[in-house]
Amino acid sequence: MAETVVHIASLSVPDEGPGVVAAAAYYGGRRVANIAIEEICEWAKKPNHVVWVGLHEPSNDLLRRVQTQLALHDLAIEDASNAHQRPKLEVYGDTLFIVTRTTQLVDRRIVFGETHIFVGEGFVVTVRHGASASYAPVRGRCESSPKALSRGSDYILYAVLDFIVDNYMPVLESVHAEVESIEDVVLGKGLDHAEIERLYMLRRDLLRLRNAAVPLVEVCRRLEHSELLKCDDAMRERFRDITDHVRRVQEEIESLREVLAFAFEASLMTSQAQQTLISRKLSAGAAILAIPTAIAGIYGMNFKNMPELESAYGYPIVLGVIVTSCSFLFWRFRRSGWL
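The structure assignment produced for this chain is given below.
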């Protein structure tokens, strides 16, 4: 009874200040305590217990406190304090250090953040930087399934990675809708300068998203065969499922980039076709105007002996020749589609 009272009392959330989103200890898939940073080591060493700590843009001091509790490597802490890492998995002794890229759509732009994950025997620490959805829904889903959460740190890692990859899809769906609208514009009136700039920015953002997502394939492959996680067949299937999701994301990105490339090429061809049409019209007009210009130039040379100037019918004949020639050229150009 006394132990139960201790657990119930410890479920009050310690005030750790900014940076700590949640810190809890779990036993048998159920939360037994909300813990302070200085209690992480004590709870993580208890048999069949796992500690899950969530940090958001923590200070260096807070990271050092976590490092002291879990004996994390200096290089891993240095990487976790700098939100400019590429996705990767590194092994430091008995601890896995994983870097992932997160995304959100802000003002029609894909904004990127990072989540650094420390995984070891009896603990998982997530460190969020920049644009990222809260992991509170992940924690909630895990706590609602104690049997799955009882698997320990490997299941928590799977749940976080799966959440990160799933959050790529809403971003891609928004981009997909915008790409379809761009296609409609290209097939309609063509793209203006602002729309071409937007097309280029979308392609660049999609490239950055691909560079953020694709490395997770290698991360999950290594997790499947990691001796530190001690994954069973069921967990290996879960990590393979994440790999499949990443590959679908990659295929969607490649498809969207290809569509945007075709849209850009179509815009260029449309622009070139319009320029060609304008050039033809100008050339046709210049050819028509060349006839009266040439005739007027001839009779503007002011030579004394020009028999036509003395003819009573010279003026109407010249006008008739000009009108007939210009009409014939106009008919020919109109027939050929130049006018």
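Interim note for the steering committee: The first strand starts at residue 20 and ends at 27. The beta strands are 20-27, 30-34, 49-56, 88-92, 95-106, 109-120, 123-130.
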